[in-house]
Amino acid sequence: MTSPVRLLGNDFFLPGHAPVRTFNTVLDGSIPLHDHDFMEIVLIVGGTGSHRTIYGEQEISKGDVFILRPGAWHAFDDAKGLMLCEVRFGMELLTRELAWTRDDPAIDLMFWAAPLSLDRRGVLHVKLTDESLERSGKIASELSQLTNREISGGRAEEIGRLLVFVSELGKQITAKLIAVRKGKPEPHQAVTDGIRMMEEDMRRDWTLPELARRLNVDKSYLVRLFRAHTSSPPMQFLAHLRAERAAVLLLRTARDISVIGEQVGWNDPNYFARRFKAHFGMSATKYREKFARAIRTPAEVQS
User: Fold this and answer.
1) Angle at the Cα of 135 (from 53 to 43), degrees rounded to 5?
2) What is the DSSP string of 275-286?
3) Residue-wise pLDDT tens digits, 154-184
4) Fewest beta carbons within 10 Å, which of 38, 121, 252, 263?
């Protein structure tokens, strides 16, 4: 099987623009297995084909929507007139300009809680009605006009339109995502605050007692809250975040793997190796070798 390729946001996002861009593609055939260092939302606007992820092959058609976090592998096969609307944006937006969206239940659920749960490994799939798809597609087209023009109209305008798209999509599929969570309650403030703390200081040697103390909640209660919201306890959730950050550093820098491990909070090289492999299915060394050699330009791979 052909080795997966890794797509980097720096190859897609245009100078002077916010790290966000939309592509509209009509596909006949296939797009090889790949992953990204950015967030991607894929709307299936028409046609047929199959979508391949870590979970296997899935037949897809109009109305399917996939939300993929960095590091989530996927491919499209046997496409016949498959119309894709792909909205891509850098994770830095979610940790800086749009960090406040973590307090929005629908957006938090779409980008963190559901795809980061242990049984989804960064991939979330929902099905939209024709009406919902049309509304989302219209906003995505407006975003495409902004982000693909030669001269930027301003980061604020582009980020604002992205937010409108995300908000519209969130309104339309909240009920579906809640169903995916099987009736789990809305996130407790301790969960959203805890995730933000860990993201902002990932190198810290976090422990459950310390996190609970800083959030002013009992540690057993904090574990129950995290499980209810993310399907994983706090330290397991932190491992997801660290693995994602390490993957980006492996490809964007030439730093030693041990140094990268320290930068994401895994100071023991052996422990870093075990945790990284558990998340991505291969060692950090193999990951860098495969993807660093296989990175392609936008003209070569369009998703």
Assistant:
1) 15
2) HHHHHHSS-HHH
3) 889 999 999 999 998 888 777 676 655 555 5
4) 252
pLDDT of residue 216 exceeding 70, the answer is yes
CA distance 82 to 28: 7
Domain assignment of residue 50, given as a range = 5-180
Identity of the amino acid at 87 = V
67 and 144 inside one domain: yes
59 and 170 co-located in one domain: yes
**CA–CA dist 256, 243 (Å, integer):** 15
Q: Are 292 and 3 in contact (CB under 8 A)?
A: no
Asked whether residue 303 is assigned to any structural domain, the reply reads: no
From 88-97, 107-116, 208-217, the region with the lowest mean pLDDT: 107-116
Reported confidence tier of residue 280, pLDDT bands at 50, 70, 90: confident
Strand partners, 251: none
Phi–psi pair at 59, nearest 5 degrees:
-70, 135
Residues 6+ apart with CB under 8 A from 19: 9, 13, 38, 89, 90, 92, 93
